[in-house]
Amino acid sequence: MHGRPRKPLKAEDDAKSIAKASKLRSLQNQFLNYHRNQIFSREALEVSAELVKINPEIYTAWNYRKIAVDKFLEAVSDPVLIKNIVDEELRVVENALKQNYKSYGAWHHRKWVLGKGFSSLDRELWLLDKFLEADSRNFHGWNHRRFVAALKNIKDEEEIKFSEEKINNDFSNYSAWHNHSRLLAQLVKRDSHGNFPNECGLSEESEKLLKSEYYLAHNALFCDPEDQAGWFNYLGLLDLTVAPKAPLLTASWPSHGSNLTLSSIVQPGFCTSNGCKTSISRERVFPLILYFNQAVEGVNNSTVTVSSTCIEKRHLNWRPLSTDGLGKSKSWITYMSVPDVANPLELCQFDVSVGDSQGIISLNGYHYGLPTKFEFKLNPSSSEYSRREVNHDMVVWKDECFTKFDSLILDLNLPLTTSSHQRIGVHNRVHATEWQLDTLKSGIDLFRCLLSITDCKIGRLTLARLLTSYNIMVDGFPCTSKGSQWEEVLDLFSSLLKMDPTHAHYYKDQHSMVLIEQVTSDRDTLLKHCWHHEKQTSIGSLSNVWLRLNNLSLSRIGSFERLLWVQMLDLSHNELRSIEGMESMQLLTCLNLSHNQFGSFTSLEPLKLINSLRVLDISHNEIGGHSIDTTRYTCSSPLTHAPGVTWDSKAFVGDQEVRSDNWELILIFKNMPLTQLDIAGNPGNYEKCRTILIKALPNLKWLDGVSVE
């Protein structure tokens, strides 16, 4: 390990090892006898001290000594005696560390003793210097140094200088780089926490500090491009530079400035730049969705206020759109009632304010940083739809059913909310600082130059991340080179797939995320994927927008903040294994996931949170092709303990074997509002489960292309 080869044992070494093992067994027997009988005599403590000196990894011996120390400290009050007890324990730990200075048990015990607060810390830093001289990569020593520095109130700036000295001595010292990164992140977080010196959460002092850190990292990388220690540190710097500190609202539905016209029937709808027609329930409610740049909690009536010219202010029930049940999510939803108005031409205006009072908090403890306001208008009239019948015709996804929109109609009707200023209003947009953009651009130029000299996979990965971060930073601004930079990122991940097939899944996922980002962030590119379904009845005078992202070799999908408006989505003929995050698409009505790589029904769990979903095609996947080990459950199926699922075996006809073998199917589909479902072409035998599906889906009209009636 670390380039230090193991030496083969000699004959005399074998003899020493046998003698050591014999002595160790004898000490263990004595110690266990003392421990079992709770004997804490001087002789017993000497035996345990000798035992941990020979083998510091015997955790039972350290725990025994903790019990002994606590008993001795409770029995005395003289400061001199207390100091003697603590110093003796530190001496035992020091002897153990001399035997093995990477012992987890010994370092943990020393930390426990120092935490008692009875000992001086002056010797600790001296001792740590000795251990780091013996092995400067000893991460136990670095961890303990951070602990001691915190106890002694040593400034992070001083510790950063110490780690820099070790790095300058050896650029490949990963432990020193790691300690350096930890301290730097801690310093920047403390400097920026709870306030916004600039819009991106970095103060001038933090920018100066990071600038000097980039200089150090560049020197290390150009000295030895093949050493990964410097690269990992650089990725940490990049994260500190571009990662959002405080949560911000990045998208909403309805979007800022939109005009809505709502139908009172449940069927696919469409949105336009001048107006948006969408499907709502017969209870005349529509969703209000907030999408943040990171998972948050605390979205409620005190942190988000909604006022309207047509309805009185009322209590709204906000809930996170998440499947983990932890109460934190990027997307939050509530439902607004559609008001009844006397004048059918009257428009109701809704004003939404987010973050006027504190309470919205991210996972890392930052409060919502930039109070945001947006507005939209609603035409609550539904007279033109009141006489329409609900359309239950089967949706067909064949290519010949789709035609391209006329470019003029597309330009008028497509709800392109692809940049931040369009989603939440120009005055609320967070701008990248000049320093951030300059840092990213200089990094891009440097690594392009470096890769022209030497080709390394981590260099390609870093350049891809730099380009991606830069493109996202300039989102919403005219940038002639952004399109070509997206292509460069895609080429980098494609080359990494060939260079490093071991991590192919990761590179493939990153390639897919960048491709989705490219498609949704550019108007012209997005228009190429918008189609009209000729055989589906249109609503009003304009046709429905069907977003087709099929045949793109996607293994993962993202950029959901740009897809909140989508109602009809075709993701067929890709390589998807997960749809995590799709629960944010609350307007989704028709979804085609056929010809992908889903391995189980539970991978479709986000769909349970989409109440508007009516048409689902999951045919020709790998569902049922992978066996599930049900022996790990305490019952024949986990349905009994699934949250939000009530299991009534009498409600499902058929034998018990069918029900227990297909618990996933019931868990996901029970009570979903689907009217059409296609599951044919999967490895599992679902022919005999037809009755279960019909029972689980009370609104189902079409199953695998056949009417259930």
TrEMBL record:
Pfam families on file: LRR_6, PPTA
Similarity comment: family membership: Belongs to the protein prenyltransferase subunit alpha family.
Keywords in alphabetical order: Prenyltransferase, Repeat, Transferase
GO biological process terms on file: endoplasmic reticulum to Golgi vesicle-mediated transport; prenylation
Role of this protein: Catalyzes the transfer of a geranyl-geranyl moiety from geranyl-geranyl pyrophosphate to cysteines occuring in specific C-terminal amino acid sequences.
One Gene Ontology MF term: Rab geranylgeranyltransferase activity
Reaction(s) the record says it catalyses: geranylgeranyl diphosphate + L-cysteinyl-[protein] = S-geranylgeranyl-L-cysteinyl-[protein] + diphosphate
Cellular component terms (Gene Ontology): cytoplasm; Rab-protein geranylgeranyltransferase complex
UniProt lineage: Eukaryota, Viridiplantae, Streptophyta, Embryophyta, Tracheophyta
Naturally occurring in which organism (per UniProt): Amborella trichopoda
Protein name per the record: Geranylgeranyl transferase type-2 subunit alpha
EC category name: transferase
EC number: 2.5.1.60
